[in-house]
Specification:
72% of the residues lie in helices and 0% in strands. It is mostly helical and 69 residues long. It has one domain. The radius of gyration is 21 Å and the shape is elongated.
Length: 69
């Protein structure tokens, strides 16, 4: 029941190709699990990037100087 929505979406996509929908249901279930794992990681990255930009802006660094790596 946990991956029910992903299973239904995957099956519907696979049926459009004329298949039975079993393979699509499995792929949809796996995709939903991957999205659930990647969501918090993407949110953490976005918050970290925003904090980094605020710190750089607070220090007065707006862009890289030429010749510096």
């Amino acid at each position: 029941m946990r991956n029910f929505l992903g299973t239904l979406i995957g099956a519907a996509i696979d049926r459009r190709d004329g298949d039975s929908g079993i393979k699509g249901a499995l792929l949809g279930s796996l995709a939903e699990g991957a999205i659930k794992k990647a969501g918090p990681l993407a949110l953490t990255f976005a918050v970290g990037w925003g904090a980094f930009r605020l710190v750089r802006r607070g220090m007065g660094v707006t862009r890289r100087e030429p010749g510096r790596a």
